[in-house]
Amino acid sequence: MNFRALIVAMAAAASFSGRSQEPWSPQDVAAISSLRLKEAGDLPVDPSNAYEASPEAIALGRTLFHDPRFSANGKVSCASCHVAERQFEDSLPRGQGIGPGKRRTMPVMGAMHSPFLFWDGRKDSLWSQALGPLEDALEHGGNRVGIARIMTTRYRAEYEKIFGPAPALQSLPAAASPTGPAAEREAWAHLTEGSRMQVNRVYANMGKAIAAFERTIAYGESRFDRYADAVASGDKSGQQVFTPQEVQGLRIFLTRGQCITCHNGPMLTDHAFHNTGVPQAATPDRGRYDGIRKLVRDEFNCLGPYSDARPEQCTELLYLAEEDTSQIGSFRTPGLRNVALRPPYMHAGQFTTLEQVIAHYMRAPAAAAGRSELAAHGERRTDKIVIHLASPDIRDLAAFLRTLTGPVSQSR
What is the pTM of this model? Predict the structure, then answer.
């Protein structure tokens, strides 16, 4: 379904004021039905992780996810920022690990459906994504050799049951990493190629175990899903699960608000990257533009030596344009499921309420880096039209977004 063309046409034809009581058209029903969680189907398979369905890997990954010993201060684990009681986020504008981060923590739920991870898409698998924070100076602050040594000593039996014999790393330096401080980088450079590959293999397998666990964390159906089922089946009584205000908010979501242009599919995201002119700090974050460069050079990407995929299975990575200047200032479209429970919003927590987010899209300010995709007032665009919403419309749309809240579950 070409949502961009569809919404431009529908929004242009829609009234810019008042509340519609018209029944849903067949086109509306198709769009609403496509947003149901059940449309996601079975969990996607990651060919780069041969262990993602292993019960032993899931169990080990769950333990590693909560183990702070891999951090420099022994206090930070994956669960420190991905807090189960807070939608597997931390409710902070920017993540807080060893030090303050630069971007908002993203949720774990639904991540397996996205071909690229992080706000800038610098990782292309759940397991590779799990590795980045471990060495990041502001997150876990660990070093690769130290992490691998903990893995092969504290968890040797569990590791070998899944991945086979673990290498002996006791003779290696206590701290060595290709991304750490100068002393760690120098120690890493002095390791033999064989030793570096052994460490990297353990490191990659650790990520694959964590990813196996994260893959079990999922969204449950929301009140919207029940309403969408009723719409799809023509069940008028079942549609009473929505208030008139929420119905109107959904109508705005589909038309004048133009939300479904990017927030579509069962995760309510197109899994793409967009520049929408979100306010930035004095030094603008170039987002996806820099993320592509990091991904292409990442030894832990789908085409790398530690991936279990065949090259032809890495289609997303194979066709990336590394010097795509249109991606400057673009960030990944976040999914909207449970969005009401996850303020603040945007890549650095720039807005505290849903209403503020909606107001931003109406203002359509110029981008601090790159060019905003939003149609600004007075600008003539063929692919976008200016978003015009009155105060009641904003309240209606926010009310609909709150219907997307559902439980979070773990399948194993």
Answer: 0.93
